[in-house]
Every structure is written in C-alpha cells, then in structure tokens.
Amino acid sequence: MLRSPRRLRTDLHRLGLAVNCQKFLEAMGVSLEGAQAAYTLFEEALEALEADKGADAMLPLLFRARFAFDQGYRPETGFCLQCGCEMDSGQGAVFHVQEGLLLCGNCAAPSGPMFRLGNESLDALRFVQEYSPLHWEALSLSERARRELTRAVDGFIQFHIGLTWDKGMFRRV
Ligand SMILES: [Zn+2]
C-alpha cells in the first residue's frame, strides 16, 4: 500500500474504486511473469486515486483494460486487421468480442457479439495502453465513450477471462 493513503482512508468513493481494482486482481490471479506489471499497475492506480482529480468512476474499468493489455492482450488500434484501412478516419471501430478483434465499421467478423467504438473511445484505449494510471486524469470522457468502453471492456473480460462484476465482487461465469 501507499506511504500515506490519506484520501483512500477517508473518502469512501475513492476507497470503493480502489477495492474494485483490488478485487479484480484477486479474482484474476496473476502469473509469475505478469506479477511485476500487475503490482506496478495497482500501485499507480492507488496513487492516481490519491491525487486531486483521481476519483473518476471509470478508473476501475480502465484498470481492467490496462491489466489485460499488460498481460498480453494487445488489440491493434491503428488499422483494420481485415481490410487494412486506417482507423483514424472518423468512423471508429467495431470490437468483436469473440475474436477479441477491433475491425473497421465496414468489416464484419463472422458472428457473435460486437460493440461499436467511436473515435473518442478508440483514442482512450490507445491512451490507457500507452500511459500509466497516473496520467489517466487527463482523459475527460463523454457519456457516450463511457458507455462504449464499459460494454467493450467488460464484454471482453467476461468472454475471455470469464469474470463478471456481481453484487460487489467478481464471479467466474
Ligand atoms: Zn476493415
């Protein structure tokens, strides 16, 4: 834990966000190779939650996304893997949950659930992939991006890792 987690001890909202991250880590379990990255990520998330602006309710979700990135799942966010077009041209992308793929809006994976991600959500994923939680307060996400990211990240975690958040804890599904 942190040297002096003053806010986490006195602010229930911040504490709740920290506990959510911790419960996710516990439920996931971490491999030996992934332990250092996971530990650093958790420490930085706690530090971010101590910061002035660090109490965004999205932090645990972004934490889950970054955790998946760090543990080896790295979706291509620059171009469409099917047709090769750049995904920066304003049309966003479509996240295909079963394949764990991001494709452009014109390319459809064979079947299964998919979620549309606008450019703002795509940019946020790139940002979270690249920068530590200490910088996430720079993201100011619209309601739409929050919805898109929540569906895509939790859809991915549920389908590929088999965890879902239910009544204050993560359960295997
Ligand atoms: Zn495409």
Automatic annotation (TrEMBL):
It comes from Desulfovibrio psychrotolerans. This is DNA repair protein RecO. GO terms for cellular component: bacterial nucleoid. It holds the Pfam family RecO_C. SUPFAM superfamilies: ArfGap/RecO-like zinc finger. One of its GO terms (biological process) is DNA recombination. Transmembrane segments: none annotated.
